[in-house]
Amino acid sequence: MNREIIDINDCTILLEEAATDKTLVDSCLFDEPVIAIAFYGAGNVGLKVKYDGKTKEFHHTKGMVLSFYADEKVEFEHHVSVEKPLQCLVIATTIKNLDKMPNGEGQFLEQFLHQLVHPKDHYVEGPVFNMNPEMFLLVDQFFSNAYEGELKMMFYKSHMSALLSHYFGQLARQQSNKIDTSQLEKFNRAQEILLSDLENPPSLTELAHQIGTNTNKLKKGFKAQFGVPVFKYLHNERLKKAYNLIKNEQKTIQEAAWAVGYDSLGSFSNAFEKKFGYRPSQV
Q1: SS3 219
Q2: For 72-105, how does the pLDDT look when each residue is reduced to its tens digit (9 = 90+)?
Q3: pTM (2 decimals)?
Q4: Is residue 116 domain-shared with residue 244, that is, in the same domain?
Q5: Helix, strand, coil: what percent of the chain each, to 5?
Q6: Domain encompassing residue 82
Q7: In this structure, are 14 and 102 located in the same domain?
Q8: 145 shares a domain with 166
Q9: Cys bridge to 147: 107, 152, 192, 197, which one at CB 3.0-4.6 A?
Q10: Could you give the CA distance from residue 77 to residue 57 in angstroms, rounded to a whole number?
């Protein structure tokens, strides 16, 4: 388990990362009441939130954003396994620090997360949704940066501001494109189907049929939920998986391309460079 705590202005950034060859349970509690936003990156770790004799479970955490208020009586349990490593970034502050936060973050917390700023329980859950590709890339950069000292702090400050900007922007879009809970579940299911078979995904019509809706509602609702159209999302996920296969699993470029559904090595390399800014051979 790797855990790093960084204090920036009136916020605290918590970076947690863990991989294991056996089952591991990691518990986390806060020393004082906090308003926090948790961003879950690579991996699909299990999460249990325990408070006041209650337990809330999350099973599909990869790419999830969870906002919450929690006091010192709330316990967060991460269940890490071989197939489900942990990669979590938490940005937290306290109610008393809201007015001191720069760049308008306190104002946006009050506007979009009113129920967290004025809590009525030990644990209050705010909006839960999935990161768009830009947010996912920013989170990954927190865990892969190699800067030290003042440069590292400058990096964290700028990336925290960028991440929060995307977060509040997505909340604003959701408020202007209201989707009921049952529809959100359908679009989350569509995401799961796409991620389960990146090499041979269903067509738009097939995907709509599988989740019980039509293609127009799928296209509109998926973009409102995830910030990009269905196949743009699929395209980004394919390339992120390929990057991981090359960097962390020592797959060849050809093997990575095949694993995510590319038959042409040239097309794969061009798409990879367009997304990441460098060729796969430079990873």
Answers
A1: helix
A2: 999 999 999 888 899 999 999 998 888 777 667 8
A3: 0.68
A4: no
A5: 50, 25, 30
A6: 2-176
A7: yes
A8: yes
A9: 152
A10: 9
